[in-house]
Design brief:
The chain has six helices and ten strands, in the order βββαβαβββαβααββα. With about 280 residues, it is of the alpha/beta class.
């Protein structure tokens, strides 16, 4: 399964590191070593400083150009590693509306909140259990208010933009009411469901990305039907370890292990499915 870059293209939500292609050809051009625009050698150019040394440009034969390729990773937040221990990256800040449903535990949702804030996003948490989020909100951002808590149904307009993206995390129980703040360009919404609830089919069908952690065998079979999962994948959902999530899009699926950093573990404890 591929990892996501935060771009408006219909590419999968996340995937392995990109392999940049190579193309074009080098061309050598010789430049002189004079001091242009200075009047006298060594005299500073106001606003530009001293003239630096001049060197000939380098050229590379076209058939050797690929050797200069650098491994550039995908754009987004690292949510864990895949089965081959490669980073799994989720592009959550997008110029199009983006809905995520996570059927899982509070620990994973809080790790997502911290890592989204680390990418520069403002995080608004809509929750009926503010006491479970207070320590995280106070610790995040080094004193900067990057994670704000709101009562259910009381999230104000966030004013998301490309320069100030927003992630809204809805921790509203088994039957979350329709939110006042919905997904929009540069404003993604993550809805946390502790288990498969009566509203889950509607949320799963409208979501761009779905995450599923350990559930009961009956719930796994229902999720398999809704998400059109192969039998071996939905049967595995009832045996997943703590911290493992099956992330699904309409075209891709990937099991990802999320492990907390030292700072995250100190704040939230070890990965767990149950709260």
């Amino acid at each position: 399964m591929s990892h996501a870059a935060s771009s408006p293209s219909p590419s999968p939500a996340f995937g392995p590191s990109a392999r940049p292609g190579a193309g074009g050809s080098g061309r050598a051009a010789s430049r002189g070593t004079g001091t242009r625009g200075t009047g006298r050698a060594g005299k500073p150019r106001f606003g530009f400083g001293l003239v630096g040394p001049r060197r000939d440009r380098h050229s590379v034969p076209l058939d050797q150009l690929e050797a200069l390729a650098l491994p550039v990773g995908d754009d987004g937040m690292v949510i864990g590693v895949d089965a081959e221990s490669r980073p799994a990256v989720l592009g959550i800040n997008r110029p199009v509306p983006y809905d995520i449903t996570l059927i899982g535990g509070l620990w994973t949702a809080q790790v997502l909140a911290l890592r989204a804030a680390a990418t520069g996003a403002r995080v608004a948490v809509e929750t009926g259990r503010a006491q479970a989020w207070t320590a995280l909100a106070q610790a995040a951002g080094g004193g900067q208010p990057c994670i704000a808590l709101h009562d259910v149904g009381r999230v104000p307009p966030q004013g998301a933009s490309a320069g100030s993206p927003v992630v809204v995390i809805r921790d509203c129980g088994m039957r979350p009411p329709r939110g006042r703040v919905v997904s929009a360009p540069w404003q993604s919404v993550v809805t946390l469901l502790p288990y498969l609830s009566p509203v889950a089919p509607r949320l799963l069908e409208k979501s761009s990305l779905v995450g599923v952690q350990r559930v009961s065998p009956d719930e796994a079979a229902q999720i398999g039907r809704i998400m059109s999962l192969p039998r071996h994948e939905y049967e595995a959902l009832s045996t997943l370890a703590d911290g493992v999530t099956l992330w699904c899009t309409p075209s891709d699926r990937q099991f990802v292990m999320t492990q907390g950093t030292d700072a995250e573990t100190g704040l939230l404890g070890a990965a767990r499915r149950m709260d």
